[in-house]
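Why do we care about 3D structure at all? Because function follows from shape, and shape follows, mostly, from sequence. That is the central idea of this module. The next example makes it concrete: a single protein chain, its amino acid sequence, and then its structure expressed as tokens.
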Amino acid sequence: MHSLPHDHTGARMKRLRLERHLTQKAVSDLAQVPYSTYTKTEQGVIPASPHLIAAVARAFRVDVATVTGQPYITELRADELDILIRPIREALDVYDLGADPEITPRADQLLADDAEALLVAVRAGEIKQTAAQLPGLIQEATTAAHLVPGRDRWILLASLYRTSYDVASKLGYYDLAALALARMDWAAERGSDAVFGGMYRYMRALTYLRDGEYRTGERLVQLGLHTLAQADPSREREVVTGQLHLGAAVMAGRSKDRGRAEGHLDEAEQIAAGTGEAVETHWLAFGPTNVAVHRVSVFAELDEYGQAAEEGSGVRIPANWPKSRRSHHFAELARAQMWTGQLDDSFRNLLAARKAAPQQARYHQTVRETYAGLEAARRQLPDSFLSYGNWLGV
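And the structure:
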């Protein structure tokens, strides 16, 4: 094994450590991670796990994005995606300015159809298309909601804010993602929609999962479940409730609490048995397949990579599953296989993640860390491996 030649996560960890005049032992103690794991990660011998990244970020008192190097500006600029971020930010900023006198909104149904199309597009991995169309639609829907306030218009606006969150988080702009979530909550409250309120808390909990603030994330899950309990019984409510349990399961896995993780998985599995595959309900892709996919993620978070790889290889993805979710699963499976030494299988799943949703995979932290792990192993890999690294920009 060898240290990676490019600016990998471990190299950034080393720079942050030296800037603070800390030893490797001091950082491992502060982050409460094994010393050997920290040193090997810093050297690039092993890839950085999400748990370690979050723990080190807390120890250095920086954002996770500072450790991971997100957003990946050079690649975003090459893909002409960076220029699409500022208009989204500006559209989110005018939420409370009332109706724009220069905008004449179209009929509600036309706005709703366009908003739904963007939900579908971002889940198909069409991030650039979504990001380009989103700002104008947000401004139009904002004006419509302020001109004639009503539940449907506020919920439509909340849906567009949710899509803003999807785009920002997939591209690594986590500050913008947090702002989009705040706007989503603001609009959902005006629409008095308990289900949307539950969804907001689910997505907000995921931000705390990424930052390693598991206790706060769990509190948000419980608040979300309480909010959903106030909604009228429906399949929609059950789907969002089940998805909250899935998010909580991954969070418990990352905090190494197997019992709580399995409890949330069991709850989600029972709900999924009643809802069946509910891919299009709020485009959460909830159902038995999503439970199986999250089970793979939980095993990986518990560092039980062999079990994760075995479970993941047996998952069969429905044809109508969103490409973004498909790509995410392939990335998770590749990570587990990399850790268990199944290098060829791991790389095949990285290729599958790219094929399913190339724009998403290019900016996916798990894809990058898994590629780093495969490169560090320096074993026989296909000739296409280096071209994959060039595509990632590493």
